[in-house]
Amino acid sequence: MFRSPMLHTRAMLALCLLGSLAALAPLPARALESLQQFPTSVLTIRTHKGAEWFTVWIADTPERSEQGLMFLQWLPTDQGMLFPQDAPRVMHMWMKNTLIPLDMLFIDAKGHIVAIHEHATPRSEDIISSPAAVKAVLELAGGECATLGIRVGDQVQHKLFGTGIAGPARN
């Protein structure tokens, strides 16, 4: 019980202020899933120089797609992440909370690379969109496309595109 109306009024104002501040506080972010829990697969990119193999994590749910490679501090050159779609569509990507530069390869339903965005800027919230409807986006370590000679028109072989692969991942 409050002993005076003034003290009661101050206490009520303080409670209202705390309630208002709690409403303004951001909701806690959901916990990130360990990349070890993502499904993995191997894919091949056929370039003019030959075949390149990559082990990729598959972002197969909306939550995994949203997480992507966020907070990863290093990506081996023979690994990446594939963002498959049920049906081709224009895809919009960003680099929010992504700490390393990435090359983004936009791939059509037949497995052809239709666009490449090299060295996407870490932590940028700028939207990077495919120029046309694509079946998937592949993210590789920044600079891998230039190093390996990966270009628009190259063929990505993976079960997602109805093509198999052969050969081991690079070391």
What does this structure look like?
With 171 residues, the chain is of the alpha+beta class. It has one domain: Jelly Rolls, CATH 2.60.120.1140. Helix content is 18%, strand content 33%. The protein contains three helices and nine strands; from the N terminus they run αββαββββββαβ. Strands 6-5-8-3-2-1-9 form a seven-stranded mixed β-sheet. A two-stranded antiparallel sheet has the order 4-7. A hairpin with a 5-residue loop joins strand 5 (102-107) and strand 6. The longest helix is centred in the first third of the chain and has 20 residues, at 5-24. The chain is globular. The N and C termini lie far apart (72 Å). 26% of the residues are buried. Mean pLDDT is 85; it is low at 6-28.
Radius of gyration from CA coordinates: 23 Å
Give the topology string: H per helix, E per strand: HEEHEEEEEEHE
Q: Could you please say which CATH topology applies here?
A: Jelly Rolls
What structural class do helix, strand and pairing data support?
A: alpha+beta
Number of helices: 3
